[in-house]
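Blinded run. Sample ID left blank on purpose so nobody reads anything into the name before looking at the predicted structure. Input follows.
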Amino acid sequence: MQVISAQFITSNTDYLKCPPDKFPEFAFIGRSNVGKSSLINSITFHKKLAKTSQTPGKTQLINHFLINDNWYLVDLPGYGYAQVSKEKRKEFEKMILDYLINRKSLTCLFLLVDLRLKPQSVDIAFMERMAEEQIPFYLVFTKADKLSQKQVDDNFKHYQDFLLQSWEALPKMFITSAEKHQGREEILASIQELIDTSPYKSRKS
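Blinded prediction complete.
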């Protein structure tokens, strides 16, 4: 897939106010310092599509971007140790889960984890919640450029082995680097495959 166009459409705190369910949606989420905005900009080849920041927790809304006039990329707030109050964190959690559970056109969630780190309890807990809610997700490992190839291979295998201790089957996985655009083509190809079988692909106004 080639990204011909990418435009910001709207930001919301309520899934009921999101755009009409006429295109398949692919949401991106991860801990608040995982490099989500940088990866989104890499995937779309738009350097300033998603706002990047040195401060974790920059994304605080459900952000819809229309890609190629036929699918939505959805940038969701991060989770984990963003520097926000406990009350605000609860608001984020409800906003995110309401969207993920109720949004009919959500086709797949891309869950980002930092490849440099051992499996984090907050990430594992989120994966388990997605499985419980039967929300399809792919696993995206970020920041591969910060590691040697041996470290990439070792950390990736360690993560797989860790998950297989409690999961019967693993989700599709991608190793990425926003800096080098690594994994970009693979992610876009997987999105195209899902678009081709989506009931929303032909619902154009």
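Unblinding after everyone has recorded impressions. The longest strand covers residues 106-114.
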